UniProtKB/TrEMBL annotation:
Its EC number is 2.7.13.3. This is histidine kinase. The chain crosses the membrane at residues 24-47, 53-71, 83-106, 112-130, 137-152, 172-194. Keywords: ATP-binding, Coiled coil, Kinase, Membrane, Nucleotide-binding, Phosphoprotein, Transferase, Transmembrane, Transmembrane helix, Two-component regulatory system. It comes from the Bacteria. The lineage of its organism: Bacteria, Pseudomonadati, Bacteroidota, Cytophagia, Cytophagales. It is an enzyme of class 2 (transferase). It catalyses: ATP + protein L-histidine = ADP + protein N-phospho-L-histidine. The keyword ATP-binding applies. Residues 299-511 form the Histidine kinase domain. Residues 209-278 form a coiled coil. It comes from Ohtaekwangia koreensis. InterPro entries: BphY/WalK/GraS-like, HATPase_C_sf, HATPase_dom, His_kinase_dom, HisK_dim/P_dom, HisK_dim/P_sf, Sig_transdc_His_kin-like_C. GO terms for molecular function: ATP binding; phosphorelay response regulator activity; phosphorelay sensor kinase activity; protein kinase activator activity. One of its GO terms (biological process) is osmosensory signaling via phosphorelay pathway.
Length: 662
C-alpha cells in the first residue's frame, strides 16, 4: 500500500492549491489504473485473438499513460494532466486506424465500436482532472477530446478504412454515432454539474473552516484572558482583604492625625495671612527698587555723557606746549581715563537701550559690505598685526537690526585681533550661511584660545576677562550675547587653547519684513519695508492739520534713522489737505528727506489715471524732481512696490557692473 500511495501522491510538493493537489493525485491514479487495465486487457485480448500488432500495442498504451506519474514527479503538474487527457484518445484512434488497415478485409462491427467507447470514456478525464477555474486547460482538453470523438469516422475515411463495406450494416453504425454523441453530452453535463457543485461546496467549506479557525483563535484568546483575569481577580481579592485590614488601621490613624491637623491649621492660617502680607509688601518694594535702578542707570549714562564729552574736548584743546614736562604724563593719564569712561558710558547706554527693546526694526544688510566696514574701522590694527582675512559668504544678505549686527561683528573681530598669538601669523575667517530658522555668522581665529572647561560659565558675563596681557574691560562678549539674544538668537563658542577660537552667532529670521510698524495711530500708520528698503505711510481718513504735520515729522525722523532711499505713501483715504499744509510738506519735509538720502517716492491714488488731474500730478512730479527725487503715482500698493523693486534692481546691477569694472 505504501508503494501505491507513493505513486498516487507523486509531485504533490509542486502544487500550491487544494485543486491542484487533487488533480495531480487523480492523474497519477488514472495513469496507474490505465497501466493495470492495459495489462489485463492484453491478457484477455491475447486469449481471444492471439498475437497481433494490437495485442502488442495494448501494454505500450498503458506505459504511455503511466508517463503521467513520471511527469508529476518531475514537477510538470499541468503538462501531466494534459498528457493524461490526450494520450488515450490520440493513441486509441491511431491504433484503431492502424489495426483496420491490417485487418480491413475481414472487419467486424466490434472493431469499430470498441475503440470508440474507449475514446468516449477518456473524454471524461478533463472534467475529473481540471478545476472549473482552470478554464484554458479544461476547454482545450475537452475540445480536443470531442473533436477526436466527432472526427473518428472522417479520420478512418481519410486513411481508407471507413465503416461502409458490404459485410457491415451502415444504418446500425450511424445510429450508434447518435447514441455515442448523446452519451457524451450526458456524461460531460453530469460531470460539469458535479464539478461545479463539488468545487462550490469546497470553497464554502474552506471559508467555513477559515471562519471556524478564526473563531477558535478568538475563543482561545478569550479563554486565556478569562483565565488570566480569574487569576488576577483571585489575587486582587486576596490583596483586597489585606488592604481592607490596612485601611481600617490607616483610617484610625487618619482620624488621629486629622484632629491634630485641624489644630495646627488654625494656627497656620493666621501665620499664612501674615506672611502673604509681608510678601506683597516686599514685592512692591522690589518693583520700586528695580525701577529706581533703571532710572539711575539711565540718568548716569545720559547725564555723564555731556560732562565727559566736554572734558575730552577741553583736553584736546589744551596745547601740549603749554603743559609742563613733568605734567604731560599726568595729562596723558587724564586723557586715557576720560576716553575709557566715555566708552563705558556708551556701552552702558547700549545695554539700557537693548533692555528697553528700542531696536526692533529689521533692515536688509549686505553681509560682505558690513564686514568690510567693520575692518575699515580697525584698519590700522589689521595692517600693524599683519592679519590675513578670509571671507566665506554663502548668504549675501540678511534681515536684522543693523546697529546690533555691526556691534556683534565689531566686538567678535576686535576680540580676535586682541587675543592673537605671537607664535604664528594671525588669520581671521568670517563666514555666513543660513538654515530654515536662522542666519548663521561665524568668526574664527587662530589665536590664544579659551580654556572652556574652566571659563565657559563666565565667558559671556559682565566684566569677565581671561587674558590680561592686553587692555580690555570684559564688556565685548557680554554685549554680543545681550544683542544676539535681543534679536531672538543665541551664540555658541568652540575653542582649544593656543589653537583656535570659533564664535557662531545664530540670528533668528524675522517673520514679516515687509510691513514693520514704526508708528500706529487711528489716523495713520508708518511702516518700514526691509525688502524694498523703504519707509511708508498709510493714511486712514480725514485728518487735522496738526495730525498731518505730526505724522510727517515722525516719518522724516525715521527716514533720517534708516536712510531709506524709497518712500511709499498711500493717499487713498487721506482726505482733504489744506494748501498751507501741502506747502509746508514740500518746503520743510521733502528737502530735508532728500538731504538724508531719499531719491524715490511712490504715491498711491485711486484717481491717478484720471485725465482731469493728470496735469496737476505731472506738475507736482516736476517740482519734486528739482530736489533730486523721482515721484510716480500708482493705483495700488502692489504696483508701487513693483516699481520700487525694479528700480532697486537696476541700481544693484549698476553697482555690480561698476565693481567688476574696478
Amino acid at each position: 500500500m505504501k508503494f501505491i500511495y507513493s505513486i498516487i501522491f507523486s509531485g504533490q510538493h509542486f502544487t500550491k492549491t487544494l485543486t491542484e493537489r487533487r488533480g495531480v493525485a487523480i492523474s497519477n491514479a488514472i495513469g496507474m489504473s490505465l497501466l493495470f487495465l492495459s495489462l489485463v486487457l492484453f491478457v484477455f485480448y491475447y486469449i481471444w485473438y492471439g498475437w497481433s500488432i494490437v495485442t502488442i500495442a495494448i501494454p505500450f498504451v498503458g506505459l504511455l499513460a503511466f508517463g503521467t506519474v513520471l511527469l508529476n514527479r518531475a514537477g510538470h503538474i499541468y503538462s501531466s494532466r494534459i498528457w493524461t487527457c490526450l494520450i488515450i484518445p490520440v493513441i486509441i484512434t491511431a491504433l484503431s486506424i492502424y489495426s483496420k488497415t491490417i485487418y480491413y478485409s475481414t472487419p467486424e462491427e466490434l472493431d469499430y465500436f470498441t475503440f470508440r467507447f474507449i475514446i468516449l470514456g477518456s473524454c471524461s478525464f478533463p472534467w475529473v482532472l481540471f478545476s472549473i477555474y482552470e478554464r484554458k486547460s479544461l476547454l482545450f482538453c475537452s475540445l480536443a477530446g470531442v473533436l477526436i470523438l466527432i472526427g473518428y469516422d472522417p479520420l478512418h475515411e481519410l486513411f481508407g478504412v471507413g465503416y461502409s463495406q458490404d459485410t457491415l450494416k451502415a444504418s446500425t453504425y450511424y445510429f450508434a454515432n447518435v447514441v455515442i454523441f448523446i452519451s457524451y453530452c450526458l456524461l460531460v453535463s453530469a460531470l460539469a454539474f458535479l464539478k461545479w457543485m463539488s468545487e462550490r461546496n469546497e470553497i464554502k467549506n474552506i471559508e467555513l473552516i477559515a471562519e471556524l479557525n478564526n473563531t477558535n483563535e478568538v475563543l482561545t484568546e478569550k479563554n486565556a484572558e478569562i483565565e488570566a483575569q480569574s487569576s488576577e481577580l483571585q489575587a486582587q481579592s486576596e490583596a483586597l482583604e489585606v488592604n481592607q485590614k490596612q485601611l481600617m488601621n490607616a483610617y484610625r490613624m487618619i482620624e488621629e492625625h486629622k484632629n491634630r491637623l485641624l489644630t495646627q491649621n488654625e494656627s497656620l492660617t493666621s501665620e499664612l495671612l501674615e506672611k502673604n502680607k509681608d510678601l506683597t509688601q516686599t514685592n512692591t518694594e522690589l518693583i520700586k527698587h528695580n525701577n529706581e535702578l533703571r532710572q539711575f542707570s539711565y540718568t548716569v549714562s545720559h547725564n555723564l555723557r555731556g560732562p565727559v564729552a566736554s572734558l575730552l574736548g577741553l583736553i584736546h584743546l589744551l596745547e601740549p606746549t603749554l603743559v609742563k614736562p613733568e605734567d604731560s604724563e599726568i595729562l596723558d593719564h587724564i586723557r586715557t581715563s576720560s576716553e575709557r569712561l566715555d566708552v563705558i558710558i556708551k556701552d552702558l547706554t547700549k545695554i539700557i537701550d537693548i533692555r528697553h527693546d528700542i531696536f526692533k526694526i529689521r533692515q536688509k544688510i549686505d553681509v560682505e559690505e558690513e564686514i568690510d566696514e567693520t575692518f575699515s574701522i580697525i584698519q590700522k590694527e589689521v595692517k600693524q598685526s599683519g592679519i590675513s582675512i578670509i571671507k566665506n559668504i554663502e548668504t549675501e544678505y540678511i534681515y536684522s537690526v543693523k546697529p546690533m549686527m555691526h556691534s556683534v561683528l565689531y566686538n567678535l573681530i576686535n576680540n580676535a585681533i586682541k587675543y592673537r598669538s605671537a607664535e604664528r601669523s594671525p588669520v581671521i575667517e568670517i563666514s555666513s550661511r543660513e538654515n530654515n530658522q536662522y542666519y548663521i555668522l561665524q568668526v574664527q581665529d587662530n589665536g590664544l584660545g579659551i580654556d572652556l572647561k574652566r571659563n565657559k560659565e563666565n565667558l559671556f558675563k559682565l566684566y569677565k576677562r581671561f587674558h590680561f596681557h592686553t587692555e580690555g574691560k570684559g564688556l565685548g562678549l557680554y554685549l554680543v550675547k545681550l544683542q544676539v539674544e535681543a534679536l531672538g538668537g543665541y551664540i555658541t563658542v568652540d575653542s582649544e587653547i593656543n589653537r583656535y577660537t570659533t564664535f557662531t552667532v545664530y540670528l533668528k529670521k524675522p517673520e514679516d519684513i515687509q510691513r514693520q510698524v514704526l508708528f500706529k495711530e487711528r489716523h495713520a500708520e508708518i511702516f518700514f519695508d526691509a525688502h524694498l528698503n523703504s519707509t511708508g505711510i498709510i493714511w486712514n481718513g480725514p485728518i487735522t492739520s496738526d495730525l498731518y504735520r505730526s505724522a510727517f515729522s515722525k516719518t522724516l525722523d525715521f527716514v533720517k534713522i534708516y536712510n531709506t532711499p524709497n518712500f511709499i505713501t498711500d493717499l487713498s483715504r487721506q482726505g482733504h489737505i489744506d494748501k498751507e499744509d501741502q506747502l509746508w510738506m514740500f518746503h520743510e519735509i521733502i528737502p530735508e528727506a532728500a538731504r538724508n538720502g531719499l531719491i524715490r517716492i511712490a504715491a498711491i491714488r485711486p484717481d491717478a489715471a484720471d485725465d482731469h488731474i493728470h496735469d496737476y500730478l505731472r506738475s507736482m512730479n516736476e517740482s519734486i524732481l528739482k530736489l533730486g527725487i523721482e515721484q510716480r503715482f500708482f493705483l495700488s500698493m502692489k504696483e508701487a512696490a513693483g516699481w520700487i523693486e525694479s528700480e532697486n534692481e537696476k541700481i544693484a546691477l549698476k553697482l555690480k557692473s561698476n565693481g567688476n569694472a574696478d
